Structures are given as structure tokens and as C-alpha cells.
Amino acid sequence: MTPLGPSTLRARRLVVFGLFAAALVTLVLALAMRLVPVDAHAREARARLFLVAAEEALERDGETLRRTADRIHAGPEFAAIADGGGAEVRPARLFSILGESLPKGPGWGAVFFDRSGRPVAWAGEASGLEAERGTAATGFVTSFHVTRA
User: Fold this and answer.
1) Are 144 and 61 in contact (CB under 8 A)?
2) At 146, is the pLDDT very low, low, confident or very high (cuts 50, 70, 90)?
3) Vertex 143, ends 131 and 61: CA angle to 5°?
């Protein structure tokens, strides 16, 4: 192994210093661009993108809730519980039906309310759900909600 001469060491130091300086300048410029106030056009574009994404998510969640409600109400076990008045005794099967019908993953909740608006069965993240007044032709209401973080 031959020792490097002073001119070779100086050239390497200059290259390393040049790379460090370029990285430092890039970092400062990136930080400056991040901290510069955003103009009104950029804010409006971001708000439009956010609204479009939110609308699409709401449409997907609404369609999922509709399919879930259809699955629950079409099930023969649910009809037997609701028609037979068995909801007042809180049958365990009603909890299972709601739990199995909800989409997988966090953020979904369902509550089954009786004619008086009392929660009879629930599944998922169902805290805070209330019966929707005036929507139950049969006297029973199933409320759903979606939470997204």
C-alpha cells in the first residue's frame, strides 16, 4: 500500500467538502421552501384535493353501510329476532349478527335499538350512536357510523 501524496489528500478533502457544502445548501433550500408561506392558489388546490378525497371516502363508506344494512335486514335470523319481539331480551345472536355484518377493520360500529329507542345490541366501535328518530317504520332502528383517523 503506497501512502497518498499531499496533492491527492487535498483533492479528496476538496471533494468531501464540496459534497458536504452541496448537501448543506440542499438542506437549507428544502427547509426554506417548507417554511415559506403557501400562496392562496396552493391552499385552494390542496383544499380541493382534500374535499375530493373526502367525498370519495364518504361515498365508499356510505355504499359499505348500505350493503351492510341490507345484509343485516335480509338475514333470516335478524328477521326472526325482530319479528318475534325477541330483541327485548337481548339475545346473544343479535350481537353476533351485527358483529359479523360489519366490515373488517377499525372505525365501524353498529347499534340495534328497540321501539323505545333503547340500545339492544351493538358491535364494533358503537359508542355515541343514537337512534335516528322517525326513521323506523317497523319500530326498530339500526344505526351505523364510521370513524376515520
Assistant:
1) no
2) low
3) 145
